[in-house]
Amino acid sequence: MSDIAISQDASQRELDRLTELAQDVIRRAREAGASQAEVSASIDTGLSVNVRLGEVETVEHTRDRGFGLTVYFGKRKGSASTADLNADSIQATLDQACAIARYTEEDPASGLADASRMAREFPDLDLWHPWAIDTADAIALGQEIEAAGRAHSGITNSEGASVQAGESLSVYANSHGFVGRERGTRHSLSLSLIAGDEAGMQRDYWYDTARSADDFISARVLGDKAAERTLARVGARRLSTRQCPVLFSPDVARGLIGHLIGAVSGGALYRRASFLLDHAGKSVMPAWLTIVERPLLKRGQGSGAFDAEGVATRDSVLVENGVLARYILGSYSARKLGLESTGNAGGIHNLVVEPGHGDGGAADDFSGMLRRLGTGLLVTEVMGQGVNTITGDYSRGAAGFWVENGQLAYPVEEITIAANLRDMLLGIVAVGSDVDRRSHLLTGSILVDRMTVAGE
Known about the structure:
- This protein is α+β, with helices and mostly antiparallel strands.
- It has helices at 8-31, 87-103, 135-150, 219-232, 250-263, 266-270, 331-337, 366-373, 421-426, and strands spanning 36-52, 55-73, 76-82, 155-174, 179-197, 200-210, 242-248, 291-293, 316-320, 323-324, 351-353, 356-357, 376-383, 393-404, 407-420, 428-431, 441-442, 446-454.
- Pfam families: PmbA_TldD_1st, PmbA_TldD_2nd, PmbA_TldD_3rd.
């Protein structure tokens, strides 16, 4: 039996208990004088095992509870939270939230999301797959993953394998009468290895994450992938400073899309801290490129029928034929901007960057993207925080491979890639069909026409 897995019936009982608690606290908040109130309550359980060199390093069992309450006295807001769900702690949390609200300044944008926007349909998104794995089996799986990686000639050491199983139950309720219940599981496997020669040591890793453990790649495939990536980095060189096209591998390309999300999100916009300020309806990417939010994908990493305020989610275009179709807004940022919520309180849901290129025809797989790159830089890792979302200036440490005539030539490290995000987004040449599905940002590799590469 699993050490942590919550059964179907037990999870429903826990959700019932959280629902009753949330509704009771909202009722008491109204009795205390609050004009509006909202509650988020959650229970998270997990098992995490780390193995290194065949030996167990750590075994961690977690069971975390969370309870957050926000009350509104007119346009005055107060929030408080606790990790203790007993009656005294809940009452103290309610008292604190009400006390804070009575003494804060009024904010015209505060308040619940509009009642008319609350979700009314709750489809089964296939997010609940408890993993029936106990500690002994998790340790054995970690050892199997690590052994597969260490079996490769040239691997000299290991930083360890990890096996994690997690389950989350949550309820969001507010004084509109809305109650949203969610169950989700998220499991992961990973391995980090070291290889080296007289020129120095190299480290790399691989991982997999899934809603259902049935969707994992095998232990051997994961170990092989981690080893192949690590060995490929041996003998890495620096590059001389140059300008060239840059291909971002899918897991790194997510970061580029993440910068776009940050620039068109409400908080940055109403603070006027975005390089894409006032760009709705304007071209921000090539005319062939479209990005769509799809929150109702089965087993999606970011799937959900409602956002953090209870607003119903729906499929919605973010970028259409290169034009920014909308911003990413919760109700507060929407009111600050004189707009309407886009159902994105708490973040984005399953953003799909549609593969393609400006030449028409089918999108390229990874090999095809390398051929399209021709001669230039493949980036497989970025480091540092050199991104200014106000100006769009982008400068980050990077590692990867120099590519010649569409073939990997040699690994590179200790370089810096730089450009402006506005130019990078407009300069996207192609998006590959090699989509990385381990995230809620679903994109293949992304080829940018030109960046500055600084090295020796």
